[in-house]
Amino acid sequence: SPQRAPMFRLIGSSLSLGCSLRSAVLARVHVAKMATFVPRKPSGLVYDERMEKHFCTTGTHPECPERISCIYEELQKQGLVDACTRVESREATPEELKSVHTWEHIQKMATTKDMNQRKVNAVADEYNSVYLNPSSNEAALFAAGSLLNITEKVVKGELENGVAIIRPPGHHAEAHLAMGFCIYNNVAIAAHRAVNEWGLQRVLIVDWDVHHGNGTQNMFYDDPRVMFFSSHRYHDGTFYPPGRGGDPTMVGKEKGLGYNINVGWNRSLMGDAEYLMMFYDVLLPIAQRFRPQLVLISAGFDAARGDPLGHCRVSPSGYAQMTHALMGLARGKVVMVLEGGYNLASIKASFAACTRVLLGEAPPELEESEFELDRYQSACASVRATVTALQPHWPILNKEPALPDLAALKVKDAESSDSEVDERRASSAARQQQQEQHQQQQRSTQASAHSSPKK
Predict the structure, then answer these.
(1) Does residue 404 have a cis peptide bond before it, meaning omega lies within 30 degrees of 0?
(2) Could you report how far apart the first and last alpha carbons of the chain are, in Å?
(3) pLDDT score at 284
(4) How far apart are CA 351 and CA 334, in angstroms?
(5) What is the C-alpha to C-alpha distance for residues 20 and 417, in angstroms, rounded to an integer?
(6) Rounded to 5 degrees, what are φ and ψ at 354?
(7) Phi, psi of 344 (to 5 degrees)
């Protein structure tokens, strides 16, 4: 089982980046030392095989049952299941679902259990990117109810933090309909219960899924008690879900103005450096002033390297670093909830890395990665757009983020490269000189031996 670090260790984020990437990104990312709240109470884990009953009957599908089984098996293999306290799973009740969903939607999903597959398919066809079978509603009820169980225990202090290995995902589900592989909005239900039933005043939802959490955003768009943060591929509204909902100017309305935060990437291949830049420049300054009492992570791992839908480059270490940063909020009351992620190798490695951090391990150092100027400039533009939209509501943000001189960086990178070349040449010349000296010494020794008289 993982070793726990000492209580309240001061740990700086360990950004071990490549030289050229470090010169550009670390000039942009403020890496502040922060108190890491190491768990004193158990970390919880919830999982139920009955959620695997939701599967596609018409062929292979990226949102498959193996997504949760492979994560659970990986956590078992690493000893992380035994390191956690197992939380009982359960179905959500209709009353709990009604906190964010319409009665019509709840009833419609419930009726599918008594239909044959042909009729269930007809219901699924009414929605955007949804499949169903007669057991899908049962799986969705277990996903929502199991998350409620573990979140309530964290809120009430029975657990320090928790992980929910659940499916189907939820953040696309709207109040009145299923959408984007999602049936019920699991995280939204838990957040609503937290501020309406469990006595909290401030909940932060961090959605790092590569797709915008449209459903969650709409459910709390005018509610200042629930701050919603989403980082996602946006591409000016053309990436799924299409439309302007994920635009940085969507900052909330009425009392909720300033409590909805969108960072929309407009190109692919965003990785650890871009995500951590966004965390330190946008999310953390605001979250530290919002002072959440609970952090719910809508943890989609489809921005991970190798994901067939996300096409980004976040590493397990990158996700662990983000989890580590969030543990400095809400006195460590963090619940990580599976959303998307469709490369089985990526999601199990990433989920395990985050779980280790929640159990008290320091996050691993980031891997070296190659700096790409175009990607970096696009990321800076996305962060600037979000900061500009939010600055009237959060003056702590710099209206014009202090971007490095990219032209100078190019020169610096070139100079660095030239220096490396010169160093290699000097090293090669030194080795060649040593070899020549060694060969000359050998020849002198041989000549001396030939000239000496034999015994």
Answers:
(1) no
(2) 71
(3) 97
(4) 14
(5) 9
(6) -70, -40
(7) -60, -40
Helix extents (H) in 156-305: 186-196, 214-219, 272-278, 284-290
Check residue 398 and give its pLDDT. 74
| 3-class DSSP assignment, residue 150 | helix
Q: For residue 40, what pLDDT is reported?
A: 78
Tokens of 64: 């498959």
Q: How many CA atoms lie within 13 A of 153 on its CB side?
A: 24
Please name which of 113, 104, 100 lies closest in space to residue 144, comparing C-alpha atoms.
100
| Residues with catalytic function | 172
> pTM of this prediction?
0.84
Q: Pairing mode, if any, of strands 9-11 and 34-36?
A: antiparallel
**Distances, alpha carbon 125 to alpha carbons 132, 137, 179, 335, 390, in Å:** 9, 16, 11, 33, 38
Low-confidence ranges of the chain (pLDDT < 70): 1-39, 399-455
Backbone Cα Rg of the chain: 26
* CA separation, residue 230 to residues 245, 268, 339, 352, 394 (Å): 11, 16, 13, 22, 17
Measuring CA to CA, how many Å separate 335 from each of 120, 204, 295?
33, 11, 6
Phi, psi angle pair for 392, to nearest 5°? -60, -25
Detail the DSSP E strand segments found in 197-255: 203-207, 226-233
Quick one: tokens of 141? 């009820």
Which tokens is 394 given? Answer: 């959060």
Contacts of 341-345 with CB under 8 Å at 24 or more apart are: 341/67, 341/209, 341/300, 341/301, 341/302, 341/304, 341/307, 342/62, 342/63, 342/67, 342/302, 342/307, 342/308, 342/309, 342/310, 343/304, 343/306, 343/307, 343/308, 344/66, 344/67, 344/70, 345/306
Residue type (1 letter), 26? L
Beta-carbon contacts of 211 under 8 Å, excluding residues fewer than 6 positions away, are 171, 172, 180, 232, 233, 239, 240, 241, 300, 302, 340
| Cα distance between residue 131 and residue 439, in whole Å | 75
Run of H or E residues at 34: strand 34-36
Measured CA distances, 170 to 182, 186, 333, 398, 400 (Å): 5, 5, 21, 33, 35
Angle at 294 between CA 292 and CA 295, to 5 degrees: 90
Alpha-carbon distance of 123 to 116, in angstroms, equals 11
Task: Point out which residues pair with 261 in neighbouring strands.
Answer: 229
Paired with 294 in beta bridges are 203
